[in-house]
Amino acid sequence: MNCELRITDSGLQSKAPSSAPSARVEGRGGLGDKQDKKLKEACRDFEALFLSIVLKQMRKTVPKSALFGSDPAPDTFQEMMDDEIGRSAANTSSMGIADMLYRQLTNRRSK
Predict the structure, then answer these.
(1) Which residues, in sequence order, are CB contacts of 50 under 8 Å at separation 6+?
(2) What CA–CA distance (Å, rounded) separates 3 from 83?
(3) Residue 17 backbone zone (phi > 0: left; psi -120 to 50: alpha; other: beta)
(4) Is 6 in a helix, a strand, or coil?
């Protein structure tokens, strides 16, 4: 099934094939508490994922030391640590990416 999403002045619209009816997401006034919480959580998750990727890419620029040999355990631990740092930073809103993304998405919905 092929579906097209468009952001318009009246909100987010999806254009389904002619056999299926078109769906439209209500504006901010129609956004319930449950949907609002889901949107905030999705924005926080996006920020955590983004920060985790940034940390992993930054770590790749640091030369590896022969101190640990070829043991994969430190690399696995470091990846888990980067994920947790990203999650922690997103939950404390230290970067503000989730807040900006949430405001941007709710502003588009309310127009």
Answers:
(1) 86, 97
(2) 33
(3) beta
(4) strand
Give all strands (DSSP E) within the chain, no chain letters.
Answer: 4-8, 11-15, 23-24
What global pTM score does this model have?
0.61
Q: Around 13, how many Cα atoms within 13 Å sit in the side-chain half-sphere?
A: 10
Residue range 43-101, pLDDT digits in tens: 999 999 999 999 999 988 988 777 767 777 878 888 999 999 999 988 887 788 999 99
Q: Which two tokens stand for residue 49?
A: 């994922």
> What distance in Å separates the CA atoms of residue 84 and residue 7, rounded to the nearest whole number?
33
Q: Which two tokens stand for residue 106?
A: 């709710």
Give the contacts of 9 (CB within 8 A, at least 6 positions apart). Answer: 111
49 vs 88: CA distance, rounded Å: 11
